[in-house]
Structure formats: C-alpha cells, structure tokens
Amino acid sequence: xxxTTQPNSMESNEEEPVHLPCNHSTISGTDYIHWYRQLPxxxxxxxxxxxxxxxxxxMASLAIAEDRKSSTLILHRxxxxxxxxxxxxxxxxxxQGNLIFxxxxxxxxxx
Amino acid sequence: DTEVTQTPKHLVMGMTNKKSLKCxxxxxxxxxxxxxxxxxxxxxxxxxxxxxxxxxxxxxPSRFSPECPNSSLLNLHLHALQPEDSALYLCASSQVSRYSxxxxxxxxxxxxxxx
Lengths: 111, 115
Fold this sequence. Notes:
Order of helices and strands of chain B: EEEEEEEEEEE
Radius of gyration of chain B: 13 Å
Distance between the termini of chain B: 31 Å
Radius of gyration of chain A: 13 Å
Number of strands of chain B: 11
Order of helices and strands of chain A: EEEEEEEEE
Oligomer: heterodimer
Distance between the termini of chain A: 37 Å
Structural class of chain B: mainly beta
Number of strands of chain A: 9
C-alpha cells in the first residue's frame, strides 16, 4: 500500500470548520482514499472514503485533488467530540486491500 | 456503541499463563481482523480471516494463535507472552469485497498487560 503524509497535530475551535490534509503523491490508479478516526479509549471508526470524486456523508466531506496526489477531510463544524487521531489510508482497489495505518493527525478542539 | 464486541476489556496475565481474547459481530461480515496497538502508535495488522479461513498472517509470533470458529466469532489465544506484548488488541470486521471499498468496523479493544 502507498504511503501517506499527514501533519502530526492540528488545533481547531469548536463550531468552526476543520480541514485535515493528506498527501499521497505515489497513489496508484486503483487506490481508494480512506479516512478513519480514533477517539480516546476507543477503536478506530470509519469516517469516509473516495476514489476520484469528492464525497459527502453525515460525518464529513472528502475533497480529492484532480491529480489525486492529495486529499482533504473536512469537518464542517467541529465539536469537542471530534477530538481524535485522524488517519488517512490508501487501500489497493485491486485486492482486498488491508488497512495500513500511518501516524495520523491528532486533532484538538478548543471550546 | 460499537457493533463489534470484544471481551474482556482489560486483561492482566503472567508470562506463563494461557488466555484468550474474544471478538463477536452480528453484521453478517465474512472478513475479520486482529490488530495490535502499542501506546501512542497506530494499529498494526496481525491476522486476517476471510470466510473463516486465515488469509493473512503478518509474521506474528506463534505465541499468538488466532481462531475463527464461525462467521460471527474470532478468538486470539495467548500463551507464553512477553512484557513487550502488552498493548491494545483490536478486532475488526468487514464485508468481503474485491474492491477494497468496504469499511472496517472496529471493537474498542482488549487492553492487555503482561507481568
């Protein structure tokens, strides 16, 4: 699985939007971009995934660059409950493509 | 609340003990996974089961022995563990798909301490 690069940490204010970046310059054409998050004392939680087009769900939006070498996870209004480690993961679409976690971004949310 | 249930939540054992970690899901998923997570590190894949058969073993020492007795259950048998095996052990499940677009659902883990 190709590698991703994320900032170690980010800070946000409550009720403001948060943009979490991820670089994946060696992405292949069949790699899906997945985002998971892990809240303190919990297992990872699926957030969103996409291949080429931008994606929206009830938790977040995923904006994928046209060349697919980077993506951004967007939380539209951060809450205290969104404080977590966010992992950007590439999964090979040509196979079962297991999750290979990188270091992730630790998001802090200030009230 | 998670749909993947892991028991026990905490386990303390000596290096000569034998214990088992259990994982259960009732979502009809046919792929199940074990991960190991050390403190302040990301999860690392240990084993993958697909249709109750072991499909991936990421070079895990034999003191960890996985078992998938049916499509809803996944066990991890532990024997003669070392202090460095102390970690959070996470179970996950997903639908089987050839396209890697199926999310994995994680339990909250078993926190294991080896004395």
